[in-house]
Amino acid sequence: MNALISDPTTQGEHQTMAGNIYELVDVKKYFGSKATTVRALDGVDLTIAENEFLAIQGPTGQGKSTLLTLLGALDRPTSGKITFDGRDLGALAESELAQLRAAEFGFVFQTFNLIPTLTAQENVETALVPAGLSAEERRSRALQALADLALDDRATHLPSELSGGQQQRVAIARALVKNPRVLLADEPTGNLDEQTRDEIVGLLENLWRDRGLTLIVVTHDSWVAGRAQRIAVIKGGRVNTPEQVASS
Amino acid sequence: MFFTYLRRELRRRSRQAIVVSLGLAIGIGLVMTVSSASAGVKNAQTQVLHSLYGVGTDMTVTKTASQGSFTPQHFGFGGLKGIGTSAAGTKINRSTLRVTGGDTTLPSSDVTKIAGLSGTKAATGGLVLNDTSFSGTLPKFSFSGGVRTITSGGGGRHHGGGGSRSSFTPGSFSTGSSAFNITSFTVTGIEISSSGVGPLDASQVTKGHYFSSKDNDADLAIVSASYAKTAKLSVGSKIKVAGKSLAVIGISASNSNSADVYIPLGTAQKLSGLTNDVSTIYVSATSSSNVSALSTAVGKALPGSTEQTSASLANDVTGSLSSASSLANSLGRWLAIAALIVAFMTAALLMMAAVSRRTREFGTLKAIGWKSRRIVGQVMGEGIALGIAGGIGGLIIGIIGSRVISGVSPALTADVPAASTGGFGGGFAGAAGTPGGGGFAGFTHHHAASGGSVLVHLSAPLQGGTIALAVGLAIAGGLVAGGFGAWRASRLRPAAALRSIA
Questions:
Q1: pLDDT tens digits along B370-427
Q2: Which residue among A151, A179, A207 closes a domain?
Q3: Which of A27, A74, A158 to mutate to test the interface with B (most CBs of B within 10 A)?
Q4: What are the chain A neighbours of B8 within 8 Å (beta carbons)?
Q5: What is the pTM of this model?
Q6: Is A191 on the interface with B (CB under 8 A)?
Q7: How far apart are CA B254 and CA B256, in angstroms?
Q8: Cβ contact B369–A99 (<8 Å)
Q9: Which residues pair with B59 in a beta bridge?
């Protein structure tokens, strides 16, 4: 698949897609005190369409992961506005953000972030705990999610008993078991070898296509970014197109 | 999920969990042991009180003779004609039975008055007396006068003592052949009833039998085991009280040493000439919590009386029981509190450190939608689980500690000042007709039965309150440990938590 590279701040070529699920206007995120302020994001304008596969690329320390945490309602911007499905994330209470994370967003991390003491099945179940489902329902849905990712024979294994690829697949099962609208992946292949990387990226692509997800992947890997519909490059705390970056 | 996660997490951090639980267990166990020992010391003090004053007694009421009203004892030497040089060779054998020095008597009706007070369970009267015998052959002597020193007891006077205590520096009995024999023992006249209060009841009679209801003025006596040994008495022996021969019908337990000899109250009143009088009223309260209030009520009902309770007695007790009391109340208590604080702090710090190590884990859980409340609950749950484990451990340590103390059962001596136990406060007025004959102004008799030393064995009973304390401490320990960890966890912002490992 060729990435549909365009101006990331507009709908561009996504005319066939549904409406925008995200709209970011002049989003800034600063860290530290006045004297030592780090401008992780310094005026980001970005729209993301529903069902889009967007890659956020850029050098280390340029604000990729910070942008992902804002998109996933894990943090609030210092200024600017982030709208998700018409709702201003900055105006929501912490409990509403938690509800949003529980229902709408799935997260996949570079280091998998599985709970080491829980089995694969139990790790997947943790994503269903906020939904208040019965133990039996949680169990059956978790097993189904693992089976969808060909991990049903690893359900009772602890993370330490799984390979890196298997652990990442468990993390993906955990992210998808609640049927989120958005899947946010932060360097999902950063800790994997090339073969496993290809396998995981292929899996994400299939899930995105089959389930109609909005897939946002932060990566510094150009090969992975190249699989996305669109690439947003973060540099100096701002979003650019690859062409803008190349010409600068 | 909650319990699965909790169990697995504690298992993963088993070493830390053991350290936290063990710390809490030691702290709680120490508190329990000290509490049990304190209860044991309190019981021992009560035992001392009962030993001195009788079973079931919460309080004794006496009346001190007003200062200056001291009446010396007389042996009636004045009745001997020609005492002095011409009386040499005369054999003397005199015996007196008097209320112990410093005490005065109360009318028997006061017993009824106290029995009728609200808060009184039972009251019984007793007549605490000293039998003093003076026998020997008068030598030819010239008595140059002794030195009598009287120290006023003032306040703090207790059962039978106080008033004034005197020491006697013998004068110069110039003849070397004098052979006076002075003996004294305490005699308590007791009401024969089944009220369960008083200096002696049937359960304390280990040999022979107790008085029957018909024995109120019978010539019978029960002798304490220690005095029986000293005076070589046994059931069936005869003992002379105020010159009257009484039959020994029983031997009382050695720890019931409020008197050497117990006789029926009617007999005691008859022999002492104190008809319708008592010197001590033994009171049992309806509950231990109202002893203090009852003491006040008695004081109002009988102005000028002195009330002695276990609490006031405890202040006068010295010896190893007092040391044990001080140890339990000061060093033991502070040691236990210090251990508990260290345990709580260790638990709190370890929990906080554990939460810090799990920043990534909690950040992930927040990212997938767990609310802070749920994560705080999880951490609190772990803390409480450690608290419960510590509580169980503490309970075991506490039980072992109390059993060890009760098993070793260290012997403690309670030394009560003689002034508190019926010092022999009478005195020899000196021979009549011998001007300036100072004489024995009083001395304290020291034989074991009425002496101030009581031997008790320390036990450490585990009471319901102590167990409740352990449970409370376990929960508190869990809440402190979990609370600090939870506080740390609640402050984690998901993005920051995830960023910390990125």
A1: 988 898 899 889 888 988 898 899 889 989 988 888 888 777 777 765 444 433 333 3
A2: A179
A3: A74
A4: 117-118
A5: 0.61
A6: no
A7: 5
A8: yes
A9: B283, B309
